[in-house]
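Narrative of accomplishments. A recurring question from our advisory board has been how the design workflow behaves on a single, concrete structure rather than in aggregate. To address it, we present the structure tokens for one chain from the evaluation set, followed by the sequence designed for it. No filtering or post-editing was applied between the two.
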């Protein structure tokens, strides 16, 4: 084979391979940017049964918290302020893990949070999200993909920055 033909074939093969990789990496905007949220039901504080995929179409901040977690308690008023400022732009879901409904409700009354709250008394969602520390917060795009996870306490300023960076919304 002529040396130029071999190089040309390799060039064409590499070009085609790169085009395929680029096509695979280019999203049409209709799919999640990260791994999907676990599809597990949970009970809300109001007694309704729902799941996080039920909120697809809205970007979300999902925060795991517990009454025995001091940093969780400390960040809840900050989350409430950002939630109120965000309005309908971002849904906030607080998932209480390993508490009774009474313990969780007592803390909610103390902190004054009004965003959506769910119960995870056995820690099923906690394990499904592979939470490694408390509190843990997940940023989920409108297609239901986990685009960022943040372990530990988040201040109001940090929360606003993370929402802007990972959900594309300024609050």
């Amino acid at each position: 084979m002529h040396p130029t033909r071999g190089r040309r074939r390799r060039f064409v093969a590499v070009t085609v391979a790169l085009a395929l990789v680029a096509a695979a990496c280019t999203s049409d905007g209709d799919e999640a940017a990260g791994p999907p949220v676990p599809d597990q039901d949970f009970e809300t504080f109001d007694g309704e049964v729902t799941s996080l995929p039920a909120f697809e179409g809205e970007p979300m901040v999902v925060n795991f918290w517990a009454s025995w977690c001091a940093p969780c308690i400390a960040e809840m008023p900050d989350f409430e302020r950002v939630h109120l400022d965000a309005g309908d732009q971002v849904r906030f879901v607080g998932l209480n893990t390993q508490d009774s409904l009474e313990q969780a409700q007592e803390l909610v009354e103390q902190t004054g949070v009004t965003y959506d709250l769910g119960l995870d008394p056995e820690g099923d969602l906690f394990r499904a999200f592979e939470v490694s520390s408390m509190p843990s917060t997940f940023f989920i795009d409108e297609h239901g993909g986990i685009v960022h996870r943040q372990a530990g306490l988040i201040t109001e300023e940090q929360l606003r920055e993370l929402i802007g960076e990972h959900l594309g919304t300024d609050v």
